[in-house]
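Supplementary Methods. Inverse-folding protocol.

Structures were first reduced to a discrete structure-token string of length 210. This string, shown here, constituted the complete conditioning input.
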């Protein structure tokens, strides 16, 4: 029996997911939550094979949440559900440790197949995403060599857009001192000196906020 936990704040969508999974033999929904912070408080007590994660879950940055779940429970398979297109958000999620990514407009149709594939092969990739990954493997540029973590990419984009360390800290649920520590590491990795240079780098390398 595949045990699935649903982390999704939209009730109608969550109920739709539960209905589909309840009709499937071999899949059992073992719990649900609508807030990322509350989910992490419960994480140690949650026993599931697959976490269905809304990338834009309230209370926590989605990519950061993936990283934290994989640190604390590395055996958990995470299937991300998002309104964002694959080319925008899938790679940061996979790099953070997610096992698969589904756009919500296709999620209800493809979700069961994705869950089963993850349990058998450890990863679910749509044909479009697989093609994108293959293309990215062929690319070699300074950004990949200086690789920022998913969280560092978020902070870089947010600060480059003009947000203060205080605002960034509040939006990501981190302390200001943590933001300044990440800022220093970002500057060291990119060999830049200030936020103006950071803004230029973010624009040139199309770093996105996820």
């Amino acid at each position: 029996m595949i045990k699935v936990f649903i982390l999704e704040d939209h009730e109608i969508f969550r109920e739709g997911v539960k209905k589909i999974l309840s009709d499937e033999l071999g899949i059992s929904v073992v719990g649900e939550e609508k807030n990322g912070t509350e989910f992490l408080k419960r994480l140690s007590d949650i026993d599931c094979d697959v976490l269905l994660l809304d990338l834009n879950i309230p209370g926590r940055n989605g990519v950061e949440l993936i990283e934290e779940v994989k640190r604390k429970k590395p055996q958990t398979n995470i299937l991300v559900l998002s309104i964002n297109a694959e080319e925008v958000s899938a790679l940061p999620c996979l790099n953070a440790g997610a096992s698969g990514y589904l756009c919500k407009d296709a999620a209800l149709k493809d979700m069961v197949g994705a869950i089963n594939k993850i349990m058998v092969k450890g990863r679910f990739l749509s044909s479009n995403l697989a093609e994108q990954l293959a293309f990215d493997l062929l690319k070699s540029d300074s950004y990949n060599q200086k690789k920022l973590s998913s969280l560092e990419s978020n902070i870089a984009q947010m600060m480059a857009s003009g947000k203060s360390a205080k605002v960034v800290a509040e939006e990501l649920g981190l302390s200001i001192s943590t933001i300044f520590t990440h800022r220093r590491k970002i500057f060291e990795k990119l060999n830049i000196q200030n936020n103006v240079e950071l803004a230029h780098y973010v624009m040139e390398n199309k770093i996105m906020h996820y």
